[in-house]
């Protein structure tokens, strides 16, 4: 409706101009053709020197009028052209996929309007909007610290990517934790036309640590104040966003508002939508000084070049020092200081329409910002309650947020056609590797999986680990999918040491896992469990990639390579730490074997000792692992010897051996060519043997496999002949690679395979 209104106004104004200007001009010329009440002829015949009315002054007047008439005619021609263009355009034309301009609601810039409130801020004016070029890069700055904030950044970025049509450059001011998480995420996400730069938030702490802050964001909530110093000196403008923001429109529309700044306006802000700065929320409430209701800093447009020239650093520091003498601390972090500066310098602000920051805080007045869904631009969850905040339309806002929270991020890997992008070495190498594969090969999908880059979110939940002083700590490493989630609590009860888990989930499943974990007292009481989400892509379960991800992100010198459906014996963690010392694992290449057993009973009274386990083994309650279906996998462990062993003993590698082992963290990775079911652990144990690891069985350690429904991959293996053919082909190629890499010593693997 607003677009139609503007179109009609433009058309009417242009029409009146074309009709009105010539009329006024000719009246002026006609009036000017009379001298003393008599008409003055402009005929060339009468303008000759011999004419009785000819004078020098009348000649000059006539020439100036002719020049003016030609100027008016030229103006009319231009106006007619503009009118014809206006007629040929429709509202839909401006909103097409190839449009380079974005329709924008007007904000306010004068000091009177700054005090006019939210309604005035949301009013519109008609006028031609400035263009955002198709391939113009939009710069966005975000301060992010910690594990939870990193999850919020992902949802924010998803909402921006969903709507965007321009290249994006994210400037992330992050602590070490957030940088590790987000650097891996964006590197594996591989979104075209998106650039990421990191700035060390810990180095900036000294810039703002002198400011006492009561806000829950802590010291990081003050770092937006120092962006003029932090961001590159050649960066002229940037959109600054809080992590709890959700976009409902193309961010280019907000970027276009920079063109509306006038004079000394350097900050684009939306008015605060609560009465906080009015000081009437409760008795003796004393907020920082602000202009009227003040401004919310969840969304900021910063003209960095002008701010630097104005000496912004000096400006905000002096203001903060002066106010802290009476206020003692900030309540809303950087927002209090921004408002105190604006109170003294109102000319700095360009007030954005309030739909650019619809604030869902307690006591909010945000309902005045929108009358329809189409009015919403940016939603700001600026209450500590976040999604639990009370609001008349909170269900709608929550559903919009959840849409992006659970949206498949792989679908956002969209090319921006027609826009040149920076060369991505990783992407080029990937394309080269894929191009070398034969798509007609019946095993093409298996081979392709080896090169698939899976989006990875490390440390999805809060993680804390204190290194052991004796340098003997062991991390349990495992991988799982959604159907094994119920095993987590049991494993945490059996293993008190650190755990590193790789979870293969979709975006929606990741949120289900988050809710499950947050609702579990057992999981929430454990902070030494690292949950790493590897997002689903492709048709196979990338079991060895998952193991590698979990292995790579351990913090201990040793790791126990297990599977999620095994429960370690009670006390195994401490037993392994003692074994590491006893067997001098730090100075020798050893793989310590934990014997594996299984039960077919879903309810099992777990054995508390080796003697109890042997009794259950004799009664048929327990079995050696895979005894019925795959004896070769664990036969070399020599269970008969283990029954009576009291000291560790060495065993030799045999074909198809796949025990569960404790090794140093520098052991080789699993081979990614093996996906789904079959040979994924066998190949790894073979490579350990090729690297001359010594296999040593621990006499008082054990683990028990719990029953579950067959996995989808083992079902495919059993039912699909081509699956089995491809697995056999991959085995042969792996053995050939082993021979090339390890030489003559690796020939035994080919011989063993032929004899098995």
UniProtKB/TrEMBL annotation:
Residues 44-58 have a biased composition (Polar residues). It is found in: Golgi apparatus membrane. The keyword Nucleotide-binding does not apply. InterPro entries: Glyco_trans_8, Nucleotide-diphossugar_trans, Xyl/GlcA_transferase. It catalyses: 3-O-{beta-D-GlcA-(1->[3)-alpha-D-Xyl-(1->3)-beta-D-GlcA-(1->](n)-4)-beta-D-Xyl-(1->4)-Rib-ol-P-Rib-ol-P-3-beta-D-GalNAc-(1->3)-beta-D-GlcNAc-(1->4)-O-6-P-alpha-D-Man}-L-Thr-[protein] + UDP-alpha-D-xylose = 3-O-{(1->[3)-alpha-D-Xyl-(1->3)-beta-D-GlcA-(1->](n+1)-4)-beta-D-Xyl-(1->4)-Rib-ol-P-Rib-ol-P-3-beta-D-GalNAc-(1->3)-beta-D-GlcNAc-(1->4)-O-6-P-alpha-D-Man}-L-Thr-[protein] + UDP + H(+); 3-O-[beta-D-GlcA-(1->3)-beta-D-Xyl-(1->4)-Rib-ol-P-Rib-ol-P-3-beta-D-GalNAc-(1->3)-beta-D-GlcNAc-(1->4)-(O-6-P-alpha-D-Man)]-Thr-[protein] + UDP-alpha-D-xylose = 3-O-[alpha-D-Xyl-(1->3)-beta-D-GlcA-(1->4)-beta-D-Xyl-(1->4)-Rib-ol-P-Rib-ol-P-3-beta-D-GalNAc-(1->3)-beta-D-GlcNAc-(1->4)-(O-6-P-alpha-D-Man)]-Thr-[protein] + UDP + H(+); 3-O-{(1->[3)-alpha-D-Xyl-(1->3)-beta-D-GlcA-(1->](n)-4)-beta-D-Xyl-(1->4)-Rib-ol-P-Rib-ol-P-3-beta-D-GalNAc-(1->3)-beta-D-GlcNAc-(1->4)-O-6-P-alpha-D-Man}-L-Thr-[protein] + UDP-alpha-D-glucuronate = 3-O-{beta-D-GlcA-(1->[3)-alpha-D-Xyl-(1->3)-beta-D-GlcA-(1->](n)-4)-beta-D-Xyl-(1->4)-Rib-ol-P-Rib-ol-P-3-beta-D-GalNAc-(1->3)-beta-D-GlcNAc-(1->4)-O-6-P-alpha-D-Man}-L-Thr-[protein] + UDP + H(+). Pathway: Protein modification; protein glycosylation. Its main location: Golgi. GO terms for molecular function: glucuronosyltransferase activity; xylosyltransferase activity. Residues 42-64, 85-109 are annotated as: Disordered. The chain crosses the membrane at residues 12-31. One of its GO terms (cellular component) is Golgi membrane. One of its GO terms (biological process) is protein O-linked glycosylation via mannose. In the N-terminal section; belongs to the glycosyltransferase 8 family. This is LARG1 glucuronyltransferase.
């Amino acid at each position: 409706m607003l677009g139609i209104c503007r179109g009609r106004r433009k058309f009417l104004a242009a029409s009146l101009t074309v009709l009105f200007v010539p009329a006024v001009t000719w009246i002026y010329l006609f009036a000017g053709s009379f001298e003393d009440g008599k008409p003055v002829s402009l005929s060339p015949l009468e303008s000759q020197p011999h004419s009785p009315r000819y004078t020098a002054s009348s000649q000059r007047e006539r020439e100036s009028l002719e020049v003016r008439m030609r100027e008016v005619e030229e103006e009319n021609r231009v106006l007619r052209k503009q009118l014809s263009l206006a007629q040929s355009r429709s509202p839909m034309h401006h909103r097409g996929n190839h449009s380079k301009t974005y329709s924008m609601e007007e904000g306010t810039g004068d000091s009177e309007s700054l005090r006019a409130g939210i309604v005035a801020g949301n009013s519109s004016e008609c006028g031609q909007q400035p263009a955002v070029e198709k391939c113009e890069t939009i710069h966005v700055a975000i301060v992010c610290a910690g594990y939870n904030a990193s999850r919020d950044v992902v949802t924010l970025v998803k909402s921006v990517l969903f709507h965007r049509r321009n290249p994006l450059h994210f400037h992330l001011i992050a602590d070490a934790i957030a940088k590790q998480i987000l650097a891996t995420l964006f590197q594996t996400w591989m979104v075209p036309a998106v650039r990421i730069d990191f700035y060390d938030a810990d180095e900036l702490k000294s810039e703002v640590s002198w400011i006492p802050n009561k806000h829950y964001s802590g010291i990081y909530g003050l770092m937006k104040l120092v962006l003029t110093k932090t961001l590159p000196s050649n960066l002229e403008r940037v959109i600054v966003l809080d992590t709890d923001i959700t976009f409902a429109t193309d961010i280019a529309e907000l970027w276009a508002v920079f063109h509306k700044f006038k004079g000394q306006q350097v900050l684009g802000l939306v008015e605060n939508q609560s009465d906080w700065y009015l000081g009437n929320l409760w008795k003796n409430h004393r907020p920082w000084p602000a202009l009227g209701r003040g401004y919310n800093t969840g969304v900021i447009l910063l003209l960095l070049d002008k701010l630097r020239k104005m000496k912004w650093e000096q400006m905000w520091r002096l203001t903060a020092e002066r106010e802290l003498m009476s206020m003692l601390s900030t309540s809303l972090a950087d927002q209090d200081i921004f408002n105190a500066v604006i109170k003294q310098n109102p000319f700095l602000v360009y007030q954005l329409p309030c739909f650019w920051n619809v604030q869902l805080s307690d006591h909010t007045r945000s309902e005045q910002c929108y009358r329809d869904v189409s009015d919403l631009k940016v939603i700001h969850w600026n209450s500590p309650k976040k999604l639990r905040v009370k609001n008349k339309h909170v269900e709608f806002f929550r559903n919009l947020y959840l849409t992006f929270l659970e949206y498949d991020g792989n679908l956002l890997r969209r090319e921006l056609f027609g826009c040149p992008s920076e060369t991505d070495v990783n992407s080029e190498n990937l394309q080269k590797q894929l191009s070398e594969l034969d798509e007609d090969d019946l095993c093409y999908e298996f081979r392709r999986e080896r090169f698939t880059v899976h989006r990875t979110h490390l440390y999805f939940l809060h993680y804390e680990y204190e290194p052991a002083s004796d340098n003997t700590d062991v991390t349990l490493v495992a991988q799982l999918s959604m159907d094994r989630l119920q095993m987590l609590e049991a494993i945490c009860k059996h293993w008190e040491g650190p755990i590193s888990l790789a979870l293969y989930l979709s975006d929606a499943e990741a949120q289900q896992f988050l809710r499950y974990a947050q609702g579990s007292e057992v999981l929430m009481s454990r902070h030494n469990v690292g949950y790493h989400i590897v997002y689903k892509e492709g048709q196979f379960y990338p079991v060895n990639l998952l193991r590698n991800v979990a292995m790579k992100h351990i913090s201990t010198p040793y790791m126990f390579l297990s599977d999620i459906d095994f429960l370690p014996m009670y006390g195994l963690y401490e037993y392994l730490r003692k074994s590491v010392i006893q067997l001098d694992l730090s100075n020798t290449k050893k793989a310590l074997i934990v014997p594996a057993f299984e039960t077919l009973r879903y309810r099992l009274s777990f054995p508390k000792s080796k003697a109890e386990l042997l009794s259950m083994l004799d009664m048929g309650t327990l079995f050696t692992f895979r005894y019925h279906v795959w004896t070769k996998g664990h036969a070399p462990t020599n269970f008969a010897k283990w029954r009576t062993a009291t000291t560790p003993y060495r065993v030799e590698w045999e074909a198809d051996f796949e025990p569960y082992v404790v090794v140093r963290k520098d052991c080789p990775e699993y081979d990614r060519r093996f996906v789904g079911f079959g040979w994924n652990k066998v190949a790894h144990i073979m490579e350990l043997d090729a690297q001359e690891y010594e296999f040593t069985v621990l006499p008082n350690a054990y683990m028990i496999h719990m029953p579950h429904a067959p996995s989808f991959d083992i079902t495919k293996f059993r039912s699909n002949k081509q699956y089995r053919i491809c697995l056999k082909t991959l085995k042969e190629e792996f053995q050939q690679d082993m021979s090339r890499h390890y030489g003559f010593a690796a020939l035994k693997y080919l011989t063993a395979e032929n004899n098995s």
